[in-house]
């Protein structure tokens, strides 16, 4: 019996403490170095912090994934992405993640339009449940890697 609704949260910064410390030191260190270079210029260090926070937001902030019969919802800090099951044509099961693709076969635009469902170490046992859910609600092309 598969559930009708699956939800989990991935927070890469807390899951790998070494990368988290490195990321925070980079986020703080680069603007400090820019400010030391030019103390009167506050714009560039502030811009660097905002730029890196937004570009690396999926690392620094938690991402919540919700999977139901009608599709997948990805909730991040500032936005929500919803894709219906009709969009899904193929999925690839990896060791730590499942990649959802809008194309039935490999395509060069897949990396831009696909969705990577990340599973933290404590939720790796959910991968078979999500695969079962996908097979039940969308019997499409599944690839095991």
Task: Please summarize what this structure is.
The chain contains 6 helices and 8 strands, in the order βααααβββββαβαβ. With 145 residues, it is of the alpha+beta class.
Structure overview:
The protein is α+β, with helices and mostly antiparallel strands and 145 residues long. The chain folds into 2 domains: 13-58; 69-144, no CATH class. Helix content is 39%, strand content 27%. The chain is built from 6 helices and 8 strands; from the N terminus they run βααααβββββαβαβ. The protein has helices at 12-15, 17-37, 43-55, 57-60, 110-113, 127-137, and strands at residues 5-10, 63-68, 71-75, 80-84, 90-93, 97-101, 115-118, 141-144. It has a 4-stranded antiparallel β-sheet, with no helix packed on it. α2 runs antiparallel to α3. The longest helix has 21 residues, at 17-37. It is elongated and about 60 Å long. The protein starts with a strand and ends with a strand. The mean pLDDT is 85.
